[in-house]
Design a protein that fits this description.
Order of helices and strands: H
Strand content: under 5%
Number of strands: 0
Radius of gyration: 15 Å
Structural class: mainly alpha
Shape: flat
Number of helices: 1
Largest sheet: none
Helix content: 25-40%
Distance between the termini: 34 Å
């Protein structure tokens, strides 16, 4: 049975996270982490988001 579509609420707060199983590192190189933060920054600015942590 497929999962129901998510409900998106204007002004809602959403918990978004990245993780790998068994403690595997998410980024193999420090540069990848920096690039990921830059992507988040661009999305935040483009979509007027607030990132709390």
């Amino acid at each position: 049975m497929p999962r129901r579509p998510r409900v998106v609420v204007e002004g809602g707060i959403y918990h978004v996270y990245n993780r790998f199983a068994r403690g595997t590192e998410i980024f193999a190189e420090p540069e990848e982490a920096i690039e990921f933060i830059e992507i988040l920054r661009k999305a935040r600015n483009r979509d007027d988001l607030r990132i709390y942590a």
